[in-house]
Specification:
This protein has about 70 residues and is mainly β. The chain contains 1 helix and 5 strands, in the order αβββββ. Strand 2 and strand 3 form a beta hairpin.
Amino acid sequence: MKKEVEIAIRRNQQVMVRNTSGQTVTGFPERTADSSILSLRTVQGNVWIPLDEVEQVTRLLTLRSHHLGTMQLV
C-alpha cells in the first residue's frame, strides 16, 4: 500500500482510498512528516487518513493519446 502511494506521489497520480468502514475518497497523495498519516489533496480540501484505517489504495491512471482530437465518441 505504501509503495502505491509513493509511486502516485512521484508520478502526480490520483488515488482512490477505501477505509475500514467502506468509505472512499479520491485525491492526490502528498508527503507528510508523520508517516502514520495519509494526506490527500481533494476537490473539497485536504483530507488526513490514519494509515491503520486504510484498507485499499488504487492508483488512477490517465491515458492520453494524440489521436483523441480526431476520435469521435458515440
